[in-house]
């Protein structure tokens, strides 16, 4: 049973003062104040099975506290308009301190068991943020003048977080909803998080830690709230995200997930993913299932260390700079060398997974030129990111197959760098025949038992959807930062331990 202290719920109500015509024109005569609201379906319609209506009991009267005085006007419907009985007030200033719609619990002469079904939240309460003007509200009653003051009321039904839900009173100005989130952060380099908030978790630093994160709530493109689990280090409970939308008006929401990770030498919140939805829609997880499942919590994992599928699995985090200086050269024509290109990076700060200096590189754009010895400014991307997070030029490349091959080269004893490079071009274009090209020796993709043929067929057979486990290897792609497609350079990459 809801008691009076729970001042929460949802409805847009107005109250008006009306002047009765009486003999004489006494400016000090009491004026009638009436609370009204247009209600679709009437009071009986409020208990229909439609989830957009409020599932609380019907209201028989309103509890109104004005400047310390309590009133109990009955409520009734006329032509789909909700009215209270008139309250007579002398002209002057008043403070609306409490407004609630009440159910008499079947005992109209006994208010001790009455319950609140809808109410206006008070300033400073948990749900005050969901209305425009929480109580208390000041207003003035003039002699012989009508006034209308909007009062927003919320309908609220709370269970455990697994079954937390809201139902709404029509026509409602504002609805309140809630979602719960929990995350895992998997990293081989957990000891690099010494000095971070992760070190304060009960089990300390480990390969699989509860993710510390925040979620930014955007409503119709405007940031309205940020929710964080930093206070309790992400442990012990999921993060609650509350939001409101206006009934009858299409509201578009975005939840931006930012996870605490290491960027260079600094610990900071880095954007990882966005969820988009409208009004009271539920989020659809990566497996096409609506809603958070039986536990009521949307769970995610950053990395690849969970045997049980989470609602959302994000790529293992790689600590990469956004940009760098880069040039490439072809090493001496030594068939036993390790790479097609030698990449030289400059301008990279400390702490990242790649550093200034040389790295082995390969080409993943056979038809586009890159000038050796020419300095370029490049943007740097983890090949583990979802296609939507990659530039259009490289989002459709077979990065999963490339990463599978890079992590299973021990299966191809005796392979040469040019086998690997030719397989990359074959993955880029399955019509490629392995001809000699750009100082890369020819290989055969048709001769039985050829190394390149074995590598290519294995990558195609086993690489789709592959994500390296902690301790594996992943390609890091570099493309020039100039957006002009005519100035595009060859996509080159190096292999990094994520």
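-> sequence recovered:
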């Amino acid at each position: 049973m809801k008691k009076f202290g729970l001042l929460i719920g949802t409805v847009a109500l107005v109250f008006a003062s009306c002047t009765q015509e009486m003999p004489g024109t006494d400016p000090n005569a009491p004026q009638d104040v009436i609370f009204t609201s247009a209600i679709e379906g009437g009071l009986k319609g409020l208990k229909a099975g439609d989830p957009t209506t409020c599932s609380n009991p019907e209201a028989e009267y309103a509890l109104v506290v004005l400047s310390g005085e309590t009133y109990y006007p009955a409520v009734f419907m006329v032509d789909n308009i909700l009215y209270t009985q008139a309250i007579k007030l002398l002209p002057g200033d008043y403070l609306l301190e409490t407004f609630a719609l009440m159910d008499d619990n079947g005992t109209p002469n006994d208010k001790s068991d009455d319950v609140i079904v809808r109410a206006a939240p008070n300033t400073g309460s948990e749900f005050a943020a969901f209305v425009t003007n929480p109580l208390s509200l000041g207003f003035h009653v003039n002699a012989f003048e009508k006034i209308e003051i909007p009062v927003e009321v919320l309908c609220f039904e709370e269970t455990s977080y697994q079954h937390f839900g809201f139902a709404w009173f029509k026509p409602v100005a504002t609805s309140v909803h809630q979602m719960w989130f929990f995350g895992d952060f998997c990293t081989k380099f957990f000891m690099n998080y010494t000095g971070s908030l992760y070190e304060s978790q009960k089990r300390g630093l480990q390969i699989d830690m509860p993710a510390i994160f925040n979620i930014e709530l955007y409503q119709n493109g405007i940031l309205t709230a940020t929710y964080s689990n930093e206070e309790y280090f992400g442990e012990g409970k999921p993060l609650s995200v509350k939001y409101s939308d206006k009934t009858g008006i299409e509201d578009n929401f975005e939840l931006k997930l930012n996870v605490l990770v290491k960027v260079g030498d600094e610990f900071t919140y880095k954007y990882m993913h966005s969820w988009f939805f409208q009004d009271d829609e539920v989020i659809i997880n990566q497996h096409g299932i609506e809603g958070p499942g039986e536990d009521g919590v949307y769970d995610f994992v950053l990395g690849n260390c969970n045997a049980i599928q989470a609602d959302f699995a994000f790529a293992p985090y790689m600590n990469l700079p956004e940009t760098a200086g880069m040039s490439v050269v072809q090493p001496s024509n030594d068939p036993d060398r390790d790479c097609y290109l030698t990449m030289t990076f400059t301008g990279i700060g400390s702490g990242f997974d790649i550093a200034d200096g040389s790295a082995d590189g390969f080409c993943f754009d056979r038809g586009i030129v890159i000038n050796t010895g020419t300095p370029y400014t490049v943007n740097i991307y983890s090949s583990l990111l979802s296609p939507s997070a990659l530039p259009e030029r490289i989002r459709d490349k077979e990065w999963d197959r490339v990463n599978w091959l890079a992590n299973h080269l021990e299966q191809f004893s005796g392979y040469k760098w040019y086998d690997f490079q030719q397989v990359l071009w074959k993955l880029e274009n399955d019509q490629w025949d392995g001809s000699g090209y750009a100082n890369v020796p020819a290989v055969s993709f048709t001769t039985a038992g050829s190394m390149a043929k074995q590598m290519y067929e294995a990558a195609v057979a086993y690489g789709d959807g592959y994500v390296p486990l902690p301790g594996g290897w992943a390609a890091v792609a570099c493309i020039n930062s100039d957006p002009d497609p005519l100035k595009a350079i060859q996509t080159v990459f190096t292999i990094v331990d994520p």
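The first strand starts at residue 10 and ends at 18.
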